[in-house]
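Hi D.,

Good news: the full-assembly prediction came through. Inputs first.
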Amino acid sequence: VSSDIFNLHELEFQRIQAILAKMQKELRADLVLLISRSGQPMVISGPAKNIDCTALSSLAAANLAATDGLANIVGEREFSVLIHQGRQRSLYISDLLKRFSLVLVFDASASSGLVRYKCKRTTLLLEDVIRDFQRRIEKTASDIDTPQFSDEELEELLGR
Amino acid sequence: LTFINYVAREINCKIVYYGPGLGGKTTNLQYIYQITSAENKGKLISLATETERTLFFDFLPIDLGQIRGFQTRFHLYTVPGQVFYDSSRKLILKGVDGVVFVADSQEERMDANLESVSNLTQNLKEQGFDIIKIPYVLQLNKRDLPNIVPAEELKQQLLVKQEPVIEAVATQGVGVLTSLKAVARQVLIELRKSA
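Then the structure:
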């Protein structure tokens, strides 16, 4: 398989965003993101406008992947949760079904126990949404509705 | 992982620049960063050592334009070329959609090129990809230097399939955009096929 495609439609987007927004409000977090394990931001919720979400997603995915090596050294298959404690802001990164990751930027003074609890609960909810979505795709193969563009449109985009 | 966001109308793809150390992978990204307008690019992130060698990766998100009302967003990564950073290279290939192999045309780097192609083939396999099937471009870089191997000989040694071959001088931008567009074209064609 050379390319693995994930299509995010309105229905899933709204369900995921509602889950992220709820957690963001409950924890008064600066930012909550669902990202792909390849480092792309997928759904974002939160008021922190000054954070570069594209760069954050790329580095968070790399961070999570890099700790696999550390985990192996101590006999674990992986570390599924990472927490970075800062002076003003802290960062929580966790695995989600091996394909995605939940990233939370939160006030460093927040209770880390509460953050862990809420993130774990949110992860389970997100897993349900994604599993539902995958089941739906398996039932209706027609759901793989990638944009159909012509060769001319492709040449127009990339230049001759 | 090609991620199509129907809400934001975006197609997101991941391209990895692979090749031996000091071959010009980071230079490719730096040139693309320089010539891309501010509204079509994000920050260029380089996780480098004090001697400017890539430690983990470079990362540059760029927009190539719209197709069928979808913004095409390419996330460009380089890998560290040095032999001992193999773990980093494996991680960066996670979810890759296309690869540009940046070969160093200098005679003394031929062995390093061959070793890197072999390493790429193996690392792709470990991530569940087949180099024969993945969108792939061979860039022959540093064509301006005096001690280079003829392009035909490089092709004989380094071609893994009928991939596009582009001669380049990344420091001057020659062949850089052509390579990017060649891999982007293959990625988008693969995407269209999957429907």
